[in-house]
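Running log. JK asked me to keep both predictions on one page so they can be read side by side. First protein, sequence followed by its tokens:
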Amino acid sequence: MTWKKVTGAESYVVYQKAGTGAYKKAAAVTGTAYTAKSLKTGTNYGYYVQAVGKNGLTGRNSVKVTAKPVLAKVAGIKVTAGSKKATVSWKKVT
């Protein structure tokens, strides 16, 4: 996720929740981007960002956004025909 720089911000705190759980601090970053990792497919996640200025002063929370990871498409499908049978193979989806 990315967001616009806030004037006077020295860093940002990203908050995340899974499903109907509570928001928890996921990361503190100095830039304007964050990549969530180790998410579970099919779970709804919520996020918001808070700017942090000098002396730890915080700004208002950003708008809350949601995301739901889905599995990637199966790729590399291959069919090998044999006598009275066919073998289908594909690349593993991570």
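And the second, directly underneath as requested:
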Amino acid sequence: SLVAPGEIGVFYIAVIALNALVGIVAQPHTMGGCAAGRTELDGRVGFVVGSLIKRVCTMAWCLTGLAALAYLGAEAHPDEVYGIMARDFLPMLMPGLLGVFLASLLASVMSSCDSFMIASSALFTENIYKEFRPDRSERHYLRVGRITSLFIVAGGVFSAYSLTSVVQGLEIFWKIAPMLGIAFWLGLFWRRTTTAGAWAATLGGFATWWLTTQAYFLDIVRRLPWSATIETEGFMSMSLPWQMVCYLTMGLLSGIVVSLLTKPEPEERLNRYYALVRTPVNKGEPPPKTPCVIPDGVRIPEKRLLLPWRGLEILVPNRLSVIG
């Protein structure tokens, strides 16, 4: 309420949390990060504990922000607060602390940027470029990945300089990942999802996002009995949580409808995929001879469905999942 009076409430936080859960799986580095563990448990613990540690860091940042409000007042530009606080206080505490602060800041940014760069360039090279040039050497694909990474970094720098604030960049980042996350969750939990349905879910989400920025749509929404629009400096826009509700709902419905209207995926392919999903990676397991194939000698767990209805693949959680 100190920084965004009247906007951040229970509904706001609940929708942001749901949006994050939908989108986190579709970020380019997430699957690689989870798969880096030697076993299923390593990947799960690493991802969850890492996420919780970041929440602890967020508490420290909030304390710094509250101190900045008291020190600078509410008129300070949000994007400059952290730097001003570091410049004014760290040199007084100990010589060299400001340099440590800058080094830590750059290291934390680089650790995210390089993982996004490598994951994105690898995804493009492996899943798009290689489909059109399947018979080239590994050295060729490595060169293509390096060139792609340069374009990705250049695009990131251009995007950063085109933003008006850090908050705007964060909100855009929040909105992009869920567009792909909708298709991910549909395919994970519903056998009837098709390739066309996945495309429809993603494109439907993006189209709805665009629609919620148009003046004629905002004029209609403004007349609703609940507050779904906000006005800032004479400019009307849709409230962030209501915008998320719109594109998540339409993306999900688009994926379901188009999947029902298109030809189902082959049953053999679906059985192999869902067997892979429910089979954990254990210690000492032999590597598979080909990707997306369960190695010889690995037992596929029995399928125990929580909701055995209409092709849903929601499994009964085991004790470790519940305790975790």
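Observation for JK regarding the second prediction: The first strand starts at residue 229 and ends at 232.
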